[in-house]
ATP-binding protein
Amino acid sequence: MPSPRGDTPGVLRIEGCVAPECLDHVQDAIVRLWEGAPQATDEARMMFEIAVVEVVGNVVEHAPKGRGFEATVRLGVEGDAAWAEILDTGPALDIDLDAGLPEDLAESGRGLALARRAAHELTLDRVGDHNLWTVLRRW
């Protein structure tokens, strides 16, 4: 799988993120991430975790069922920001990340809208045959 930021010391990586249990591993990794970023504000920590967990949850929930699907989560801190990259082998996606929250009675569609509000930047790009989600939260 391509690694857009490369393997860097201090970057936490969760491989095989294809099942709901992955969310526990992501949350544990985020806790470890903050050990190296004591300057991060409580608000930034909370918002970053919300954004990342919502995106990873969306990837896991909508992942193609069966063999062949892979997803990797990478987390890091640079300067005054935390970042996450979620790279998956799913089909190309056509998602409007700027769409607002769905109506009150809608049964789905809130996760990515919530992630967008919690992050300073949330992008989705196609890199080769992979989807690359990028989350950035500054403090």
In short: The mean pLDDT is 86. The chain has three helices and five strands.
